[in-house]
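In response to reviewer comment 3 from the previous cycle, which asked for concrete evidence that the modeling workflow produces usable outputs, we include below a single protein chain processed end to end. The sequence was submitted unchanged, and the resulting C-alpha cells are shown without manual editing.
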Amino acid sequence: MNKKILIIVSNANAIGPNNRRTGTFLPEVAHPYAEFDKANYQIDFASLTGDTPYLDALNLANDPDNLAFLTGKGWEKMQKAVKLSTVDVSKYDAVFVPGGLASMVDMPENELLKKVIKETYERNAVVGAVCHGPVSLLNVKLSNGTYLVNGKNITSFTDEEENGYAIADVPFLLESALTKQGAKFHAAAVWSAHSIADGNLVTGQNPASAKGVAEKMIVILESPKK
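The workflow returned the following C-alpha cells.
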C-alpha cells in the first residue's frame, strides 16, 4: 500500500497592517510535493476553509520543481484542496504544513488544525512543517496537557530571519513563541538548509529546508515500524 500524505495549507492572502500580499510559499509546497511524488505516495490537499488557496513567490517559478508543480498536477490539486473539517485525517500516514506568511494569519489558533496535529502526532503518524508552517504546532496540547513542542528539538523561520524579512507584518515572532512553549529550538545560519527530525516530528527552518523536511519524513515513513 502506498503511503498517504495530507498537505494542509492556509487560505490567507494578506497579512499585517499594510495588507502585504501572501500565500503558501511556492518552493515550500513544490519541493516536498516532488519528493513525495517520487516516493509514489498519494498526495492530497486540505485547507482550513475549503476555499481556493493562494501561492506566494511565483517569481521563483523557474526552479525545476517549482515549475513542475505549477504546470503539472501539484497546483491543480492544491486549487481543489478540500475543507479540512471534511477530511478523515486518520487515514493518512503523515500531514505536512508548508509555510509562507499566510500560515501566520489563520493557523496560530485554529482549533481544528490543533486537534488534527495532536491526533496525528499521538497515533504516531508523521507530522512535518517548514518555515512559518510550524506555527501549526503552536498551542497544540497533547492528551497529558503539555504543549506538543515542549522538550522537542525543532526549528522554524527564525527571529533573525524574520527581522530581515517581514518583521513589520507578522503578529509575533515564531521562534520566540515556540521557545516560550518549551521547544528546544535549533537555528542554523540564516537562509541555509536546515531540518530536524525528533521522533515522528519533522521541522525545517526556511524555504531552502523544505526538501530536507520531506526527505526526513520519507525516511521515517519507510522505516520498518511504519
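The first strand starts at residue 4 and ends at 9. We consider this sufficient to address the reviewer's concern, and the full set will be provided in the supplementary archive.
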